[in-house]
Amino acid sequence: MEINKTPYLSIIIPVYKAEKFLEECLNSIKKQTFSNYEILLIDDGSPDKCPEICDESAKNDNRIRVFHQINQGVSAARNKGIQEAWGEWIAFIDPDDWIDEQAFSILSGALSDQKETDVLIFDYCLQNKRNAFSHLKTYPEIFYSENKEKNRDIQLQIISQSLFNWPTNGGGPCNKWFRKEIIKNIFFPVGMKRCQDLVFCLYVYEAAEKILYIQKPLYYYRLNEKSASHSYSAETEEKYNRIFFEFSNFIKLNHPHDELYWDAFHLQNLDFVIDIFQLDKTNPANQKSEKEKINDFIDFMKNSQIVQAVRLIKPKYLSSKRKVLFFLIKIKCHVLIYSYYRLKALLER
Protein backbone atom coordinates (compact mmCIF):
# COMPACT_ATOMS: atom_id res chain seq x y z
CA MET A 1 0.00 0.00 0.00
CA GLU A 2 1.31 3.47 -0.90
CA ILE A 3 2.28 5.74 1.97
CA ASN A 4 -0.08 8.69 2.52
CA LYS A 5 2.09 11.81 2.59
CA THR A 6 -0.84 14.12 3.29
CA PRO A 7 -2.50 12.62 6.39
CA TYR A 8 -5.03 14.67 8.33
CA LEU A 9 -3.29 13.95 11.64
CA SER A 10 0.32 13.30 12.68
CA ILE A 11 0.67 11.53 16.04
CA ILE A 12 4.07 12.06 17.65
CA ILE A 13 5.16 9.52 20.28
CA PRO A 14 8.51 10.12 22.01
CA VAL A 15 9.76 6.67 23.01
CA TYR A 16 12.08 5.96 25.94
CA LYS A 17 12.05 3.05 28.41
CA ALA A 18 8.42 2.22 27.67
CA GLU A 19 8.57 -1.40 26.49
CA LYS A 20 5.95 -2.41 29.06
CA PHE A 21 3.29 -0.05 27.68
CA LEU A 22 4.22 0.92 24.11
CA GLU A 23 2.20 -1.75 22.32
CA GLU A 24 -0.89 -0.93 24.40
CA CYS A 25 -0.47 2.71 23.40
CA LEU A 26 -0.15 1.81 19.71
CA ASN A 27 -3.11 -0.56 19.83
CA SER A 28 -5.33 2.19 21.23
CA ILE A 29 -4.48 4.23 18.12
CA LYS A 30 -4.97 1.37 15.68
CA LYS A 31 -8.45 0.70 17.12
CA GLN A 32 -9.65 4.14 16.02
CA THR A 33 -12.46 4.17 13.46
CA PHE A 34 -10.88 7.33 12.03
CA SER A 35 -7.83 6.19 10.05
CA ASN A 36 -6.44 9.20 8.17
CA TYR A 37 -3.37 9.56 10.34
CA GLU A 38 0.33 8.78 10.56
CA ILE A 39 2.30 7.74 13.66
CA LEU A 40 5.80 9.07 14.21
CA LEU A 41 7.72 6.95 16.70
CA ILE A 42 10.75 8.88 17.89
CA ASP A 43 13.07 6.40 19.60
CA ASP A 44 15.13 8.61 21.88
CA GLY A 45 17.96 6.11 22.34
CA SER A 46 15.81 3.80 24.47
CA PRO A 47 18.01 1.07 26.06
CA ASP A 48 15.23 -1.55 26.31
CA LYS A 49 13.24 -3.37 23.60
CA CYS A 50 11.45 -0.23 22.41
CA PRO A 51 13.60 0.22 19.25
CA GLU A 52 12.68 -3.31 18.13
CA ILE A 53 8.99 -2.77 18.96
CA CYS A 54 9.04 0.45 16.91
CA ASP A 55 10.67 -1.18 13.88
CA GLU A 56 8.40 -4.20 13.98
CA SER A 57 5.31 -1.99 14.23
CA ALA A 58 6.41 -0.01 11.18
CA LYS A 59 6.84 -3.23 9.17
CA ASN A 60 3.21 -4.12 9.79
CA ASP A 61 1.63 -0.69 9.24
CA ASN A 62 2.73 1.79 6.58
CA ARG A 63 1.16 4.65 8.56
CA ILE A 64 4.01 4.28 11.07
CA ARG A 65 7.36 6.00 10.57
CA VAL A 66 10.27 5.39 12.95
CA PHE A 67 13.17 7.71 13.76
CA HIS A 68 16.08 6.55 15.93
CA GLN A 69 18.30 9.09 17.65
CA ILE A 70 20.77 9.23 20.53
CA ASN A 71 19.17 10.10 23.85
CA GLN A 72 18.48 13.83 23.98
CA GLY A 73 15.34 14.00 26.11
CA VAL A 74 11.62 14.21 25.46
CA SER A 75 11.76 17.78 24.14
CA ALA A 76 14.23 16.89 21.39
CA ALA A 77 12.17 13.82 20.50
CA ARG A 78 8.96 15.82 20.17
CA ASN A 79 10.77 18.52 18.18
CA LYS A 80 12.00 15.88 15.76
CA GLY A 81 8.39 14.78 15.33
CA ILE A 82 7.22 18.32 14.59
CA GLN A 83 9.92 18.69 11.94
CA GLU A 84 9.05 15.38 10.26
CA ALA A 85 5.24 15.53 10.49
CA TRP A 86 3.22 15.51 7.27
CA GLY A 87 -0.22 16.05 8.80
CA GLU A 88 -2.44 19.11 8.88
CA TRP A 89 -2.87 18.51 12.59
CA ILE A 90 -0.36 17.33 15.23
CA ALA A 91 -1.07 15.33 18.37
CA PHE A 92 1.31 14.15 21.09
CA ILE A 93 0.85 10.88 22.96
CA ASP A 94 3.25 9.56 25.59
CA PRO A 95 4.17 5.87 25.17
CA ASP A 96 2.88 4.80 28.59
CA ASP A 97 -0.58 6.34 28.02
CA TRP A 98 -3.46 5.51 25.69
CA ILE A 99 -6.54 7.07 24.11
CA ASP A 100 -10.26 6.34 23.96
CA GLU A 101 -11.27 4.22 20.94
CA GLN A 102 -13.56 6.99 19.64
CA ALA A 103 -11.14 9.84 20.30
CA PHE A 104 -10.14 10.61 16.71
CA SER A 105 -13.71 10.45 15.40
CA ILE A 106 -14.95 12.77 18.15
CA LEU A 107 -12.12 15.26 17.70
CA SER A 108 -12.17 15.35 13.91
CA GLY A 109 -15.95 15.79 14.12
CA ALA A 110 -15.52 18.75 16.47
CA LEU A 111 -13.10 20.35 14.01
CA SER A 112 -15.48 19.85 11.09
CA ASP A 113 -17.90 22.13 12.95
CA GLN A 114 -15.23 24.74 13.78
CA LYS A 115 -12.94 24.60 10.76
CA GLU A 116 -10.81 27.63 11.65
CA THR A 117 -9.67 26.26 15.01
CA ASP A 118 -5.93 26.47 15.74
CA VAL A 119 -5.84 24.44 18.97
CA LEU A 120 -8.37 21.81 20.04
CA ILE A 121 -8.38 20.94 23.74
CA PHE A 122 -10.04 17.97 25.45
CA ASP A 123 -9.76 16.23 28.82
CA TYR A 124 -7.71 13.58 30.59
CA CYS A 125 -8.78 10.47 32.42
CA LEU A 126 -6.32 10.58 35.29
CA GLN A 127 -5.07 7.50 37.12
CA ASN A 128 -4.99 7.77 40.91
CA LYS A 129 -2.88 5.82 43.41
CA ARG A 130 -5.59 3.13 43.61
CA ASN A 131 -5.27 2.59 39.83
CA ALA A 132 -8.75 3.95 39.18
CA PHE A 133 -9.35 6.59 36.51
CA SER A 134 -11.35 9.77 36.91
CA HIS A 135 -12.34 12.58 34.53
CA LEU A 136 -10.07 15.59 35.03
CA LYS A 137 -11.66 18.68 33.50
CA THR A 138 -9.15 21.05 31.96
CA TYR A 139 -11.38 24.11 32.33
CA PRO A 140 -14.66 24.76 34.17
CA GLU A 141 -16.77 24.95 30.99
CA ILE A 142 -16.57 24.37 27.24
CA PHE A 143 -15.69 27.29 24.99
CA TYR A 144 -14.78 28.39 21.48
CA SER A 145 -12.51 31.40 21.70
CA GLU A 146 -11.92 33.82 18.85
CA ASN A 147 -10.20 36.52 20.86
CA LYS A 148 -6.81 36.99 22.48
CA GLU A 149 -8.39 37.79 25.85
CA LYS A 150 -9.21 34.11 26.37
CA ASN A 151 -5.70 33.16 25.26
CA ARG A 152 -4.41 35.54 27.91
CA ASP A 153 -6.42 33.82 30.65
CA ILE A 154 -5.17 30.41 29.46
CA GLN A 155 -1.56 31.61 29.53
CA LEU A 156 -1.95 33.10 32.99
CA GLN A 157 -3.33 29.80 34.27
CA ILE A 158 -0.35 27.95 32.78
CA ILE A 159 2.07 30.26 34.57
CA SER A 160 0.21 29.93 37.89
CA GLN A 161 -2.77 27.75 38.65
CA SER A 162 -3.35 29.84 41.78
CA LEU A 163 -4.60 32.82 39.79
CA PHE A 164 -8.00 31.47 38.71
CA ASN A 165 -8.10 28.12 40.55
CA TRP A 166 -9.27 26.26 37.46
CA PRO A 167 -9.10 22.43 37.66
CA THR A 168 -5.65 22.19 35.97
CA ASN A 169 -2.93 24.47 34.65
CA GLY A 170 -3.89 23.37 31.12
CA GLY A 171 -0.28 23.35 29.95
CA GLY A 172 0.23 19.72 28.91
CA PRO A 173 0.43 18.93 25.16
CA CYS A 174 -1.17 15.48 25.18
CA ASN A 175 -4.79 16.60 25.57
CA LYS A 176 -4.58 18.85 22.53
CA TRP A 177 -4.51 18.81 18.75
CA PHE A 178 -2.41 21.58 17.20
CA ARG A 179 -2.74 22.93 13.67
CA LYS A 180 0.71 22.32 12.19
CA GLU A 181 0.80 25.73 10.54
CA ILE A 182 0.64 27.28 14.01
CA ILE A 183 3.39 25.24 15.69
CA LYS A 184 5.78 24.48 12.82
CA ASN A 185 8.26 27.04 14.19
CA ILE A 186 7.53 26.51 17.91
CA PHE A 187 9.60 23.92 19.74
CA PHE A 188 9.94 22.40 23.18
CA PRO A 189 12.96 23.83 25.08
CA VAL A 190 15.71 21.19 24.87
CA GLY A 191 17.58 20.35 28.07
CA MET A 192 14.73 21.55 30.28
CA LYS A 193 13.71 18.71 32.62
CA ARG A 194 10.54 20.18 34.14
CA CYS A 195 7.73 22.36 32.79
CA GLN A 196 8.97 22.23 29.18
CA ASP A 197 5.37 21.44 28.20
CA LEU A 198 4.17 24.65 29.83
CA VAL A 199 6.74 26.79 28.05
CA PHE A 200 5.82 25.23 24.69
CA CYS A 201 2.10 25.87 25.24
CA LEU A 202 2.70 29.49 26.30
CA TYR A 203 4.23 30.21 22.90
CA VAL A 204 1.53 28.20 21.10
CA TYR A 205 -1.24 30.28 22.66
CA GLU A 206 0.69 33.42 21.74
CA ALA A 207 0.54 32.35 18.08
CA ALA A 208 -2.96 30.80 18.05
CA GLU A 209 -6.06 32.81 17.19
CA LYS A 210 -8.95 30.39 17.72
CA ILE A 211 -9.20 27.75 20.43
CA LEU A 212 -11.86 25.10 20.91
CA TYR A 213 -12.35 23.21 24.19
CA ILE A 214 -14.64 20.19 24.43
CA GLN A 215 -15.20 18.66 27.85
CA LYS A 216 -14.67 15.01 26.90
CA PRO A 217 -12.18 12.69 28.66
CA LEU A 218 -10.38 11.03 25.75
CA TYR A 219 -6.75 10.72 26.90
CA TYR A 220 -5.83 8.17 29.58
CA TYR A 221 -2.91 9.44 31.63
CA ARG A 222 -1.01 6.80 33.59
CA LEU A 223 0.45 7.95 36.92
CA ASN A 224 4.24 7.61 36.88
CA GLU A 225 5.87 8.16 40.26
CA LYS A 226 9.31 8.08 38.57
CA SER A 227 8.58 10.96 36.21
CA ALA A 228 10.56 14.20 36.48
CA SER A 229 7.59 15.98 38.05
CA HIS A 230 7.16 13.38 40.81
CA SER A 231 10.66 12.15 41.64
CA TYR A 232 13.65 13.35 43.63
CA SER A 233 16.67 14.75 41.85
CA ALA A 234 19.82 16.32 43.22
CA GLU A 235 19.41 18.89 40.42
CA THR A 236 15.97 20.08 41.57
CA GLU A 237 17.04 23.66 42.26
CA GLU A 238 18.88 23.91 38.92
CA LYS A 239 15.69 22.79 37.18
CA TYR A 240 13.73 25.56 38.86
CA ASN A 241 16.29 28.16 37.86
CA ARG A 242 15.71 27.14 34.23
CA ILE A 243 11.94 27.46 34.73
CA PHE A 244 12.39 30.92 36.28
CA PHE A 245 14.35 31.96 33.20
CA GLU A 246 11.95 30.51 30.60
CA PHE A 247 8.80 31.95 32.19
CA SER A 248 10.29 35.40 32.80
CA ASN A 249 11.80 35.44 29.30
CA PHE A 250 8.41 34.67 27.75
CA ILE A 251 6.80 37.54 29.66
CA LYS A 252 9.62 39.97 28.82
CA LEU A 253 9.36 39.11 25.11
CA ASN A 254 5.58 39.19 24.82
CA HIS A 255 3.88 40.96 27.74
CA PRO A 256 6.50 43.04 29.58
CA HIS A 257 4.03 45.72 30.71
CA ASP A 258 1.10 43.47 31.63
CA GLU A 259 1.05 43.40 35.43
CA LEU A 260 -1.12 40.29 35.67
CA TYR A 261 1.52 38.15 33.92
CA TRP A 262 4.07 39.21 36.52
CA ASP A 263 1.55 38.55 39.32
CA ALA A 264 1.15 35.01 37.98
CA PHE A 265 4.92 34.60 37.72
CA HIS A 266 5.44 35.57 41.36
CA LEU A 267 2.65 33.22 42.47
CA GLN A 268 4.30 30.37 40.56
CA ASN A 269 7.54 31.04 42.40
CA LEU A 270 5.71 30.46 45.69
CA ASP A 271 4.45 27.16 44.26
CA PHE A 272 8.06 26.26 43.46
CA VAL A 273 8.97 26.72 47.13
CA ILE A 274 6.35 24.10 48.02
CA ASP A 275 7.64 21.78 45.30
CA ILE A 276 11.19 22.13 46.60
CA PHE A 277 10.00 20.82 49.95
CA GLN A 278 7.90 17.99 48.60
CA LEU A 279 10.28 16.75 45.88
CA ASP A 280 13.61 17.54 47.49
CA LYS A 281 13.97 18.62 51.11
CA THR A 282 11.52 16.13 52.66
CA ASN A 283 11.96 13.39 50.05
CA PRO A 284 13.17 10.06 51.58
CA ALA A 285 15.56 9.67 48.63
CA ASN A 286 17.45 12.77 49.76
CA GLN A 287 20.19 11.31 51.95
CA LYS A 288 21.45 14.59 53.38
CA SER A 289 21.14 15.31 57.10
CA GLU A 290 18.24 17.38 58.42
CA LYS A 291 20.61 20.26 59.09
CA GLU A 292 21.98 20.14 55.54
CA LYS A 293 18.49 20.09 54.06
CA ILE A 294 17.42 23.12 56.09
CA ASN A 295 20.60 25.01 55.17
CA ASP A 296 20.07 24.13 51.50
CA PHE A 297 16.53 25.49 51.70
CA ILE A 298 17.70 28.71 53.35
CA ASP A 299 20.20 29.14 50.49
CA PHE A 300 17.46 28.48 47.92
CA MET A 301 15.30 31.16 49.51
CA LYS A 302 18.05 33.66 48.72
CA ASN A 303 17.41 33.13 45.00
CA SER A 304 16.71 36.56 43.51
CA GLN A 305 13.45 35.37 41.89
CA ILE A 306 12.14 34.03 45.21
CA VAL A 307 13.17 37.18 47.08
CA GLN A 308 11.38 39.28 44.48
CA ALA A 309 8.29 37.06 44.60
CA VAL A 310 8.04 37.31 48.39
CA ARG A 311 8.25 41.09 48.07
CA LEU A 312 5.72 41.44 45.25
CA ILE A 313 3.13 38.67 45.71
CA LYS A 314 -0.37 40.01 46.23
CA PRO A 315 -2.02 38.09 49.12
CA LYS A 316 -5.48 38.49 47.53
CA TYR A 317 -4.58 35.67 45.12
CA LEU A 318 -3.61 33.26 47.93
CA SER A 319 -5.77 30.65 49.62
CA SER A 320 -5.88 30.69 53.43
CA LYS A 321 -3.32 27.89 53.57
CA ARG A 322 -0.98 29.68 51.17
CA LYS A 323 -1.30 32.89 53.16
CA VAL A 324 0.04 31.10 56.24
CA LEU A 325 2.99 29.73 54.26
CA PHE A 326 3.59 33.15 52.72
CA PHE A 327 3.63 34.76 56.16
CA LEU A 328 6.11 32.18 57.51
CA ILE A 329 8.38 32.74 54.52
CA LYS A 330 8.25 36.50 54.98
CA ILE A 331 9.32 36.23 58.63
CA LYS A 332 11.91 33.57 57.68
CA CYS A 333 10.59 30.72 59.84
CA HIS A 334 12.46 28.21 57.71
CA VAL A 335 12.77 25.51 60.36
CA LEU A 336 9.04 25.63 61.10
CA ILE A 337 8.22 25.36 57.38
CA TYR A 338 10.61 22.44 57.01
CA SER A 339 9.11 20.68 60.05
CA TYR A 340 5.59 21.02 58.64
CA TYR A 341 6.47 19.50 55.27
CA ARG A 342 8.62 16.84 56.89
CA LEU A 343 5.65 15.76 59.05
CA LYS A 344 3.32 15.94 56.04
CA ALA A 345 5.63 13.68 54.04
CA LEU A 346 5.80 11.12 56.88
CA LEU A 347 2.01 11.02 57.22
CA GLU A 348 1.52 10.49 53.48
CA ARG A 349 3.79 7.45 53.23
UniProtKB/TrEMBL annotation:
Keywords assigned: Glycosyltransferase, Transferase
Glycoprotein keyword on record: no
UniProt GO MF annotations: glycosyltransferase activity
Residue ranges occupied by any Glycosyltransferase 2-like domain in the UniProt entry: 10-187
SUPFAM superfamilies: Nucleotide-diphospho-sugar transferases
Pfam (any one): Glycos_transf_2
Protein's recorded name: Glycosyl transferase family 2
Organismal lineage: Bacteria, Bacillati, Chloroflexota, Anaerolineae, Anaerolineales
